[in-house]
């Protein structure tokens, strides 16, 4: 299973995920109750080589999560419900990461860290929809032997 598939499958276990009618890759509709995950690739955070020839690499996957909800102009109650959903998602991701319930991407599950942060209203329109975005980051360690094979 690819990293993207793992993240999508994991996000679908968020207890409030069921309000979404559609969740796509690289796209989201302007229809309330839809969302999308936009992969932003792999970033190498650090690399170190030990005297035995093993190289330990800390990597990070980054994803932007977009969610479209109903939000009429001036609707404070709807805005608050949407903001609560975004905060709940971020807190759930943190709890999943801390407890070890989140997916594992690297060779050292103890060093895995998944964060969902910077949840914010991205855009709202007069038609009664609002787009919210959350930055999801997955930091993990890979260990390579001298012959460039992963150690497990």
Could you explain the architecture of this structure?
The protein has 152 residues and is α+β, with helices and mostly antiparallel strands. It has two helices and five strands. The chain has a five-stranded mixed β-sheet with strand order 1-2-3-5-4, covered by helices on one side. It is elongated and about 60 Å long. The relative contact order is 0.21.
Give the termini separation. Answer: 17 Å
Rg on CA atoms, Å: 18 Å
Major sheet characteristics: 5 strands, mixed
- Give the strand content: 35-45%
Strand arrangement, major sheet: 1-2-3-5-4
Portion in helices: 10-25%
What number is the mean pLDDT?
93
Number of strands: 5
Sequence stretches where pLDDT stays below 50 over 5 or more residues: none
Structural class: alpha+beta
**So how many helices?**
2
Short description:
With 152 residues, this protein is α+β, with helices and mostly antiparallel strands. It has helices at 3-11, 76-99; strands at 22-25, 34-49, 55-70, 113-124, 129-144. The protein is elongated, with a radius of gyration of 18 Å.
Could you list some keywords that capture this structure?
single chain; 152 residues; alpha+beta; five-stranded mixed sheet; 2 helices
Topology:
Layout: H1 3-11, E1 22-25, E2 34-49, E3 55-70, H2 76-99, E4 113-124, E5 129-144
Parallel strand pairs: 1-2
Antiparallel strand pairs: 2-3, 3-5, 4-5
């Amino acid at each position: 299973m690819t990293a993207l598939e793992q993240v999508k499958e994991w996000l679908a276990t968020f207890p409030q995920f069921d309000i979404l009618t559609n969740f796509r890759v690289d796209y989201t509709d302007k229809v309330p109750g839809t969302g999308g995950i936009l992969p932003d690739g792999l970033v190498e955070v650090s690399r170190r080589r030990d005297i035995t020839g093993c190289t330990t690499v800390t990597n990070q996957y980054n994803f932007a999560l977009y969610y479209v909800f109903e939000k009429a102009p001036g609707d404070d109650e709807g805005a608050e419900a949407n903001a609560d959903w975004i905060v709940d998602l971020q807190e759930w991701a943190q709890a999943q990461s801390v407890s070890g319930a989140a997916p594992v991407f690297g060779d050292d599950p103890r060093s895995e860290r998944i964060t969902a942060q910077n949840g914010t209203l991205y855009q709202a329109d007069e038609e009664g929809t609002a787009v919210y975005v959350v930055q999801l980051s997955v930091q993990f360690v890979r260990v390579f032997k001298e012959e460039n094979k992963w150690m497990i």
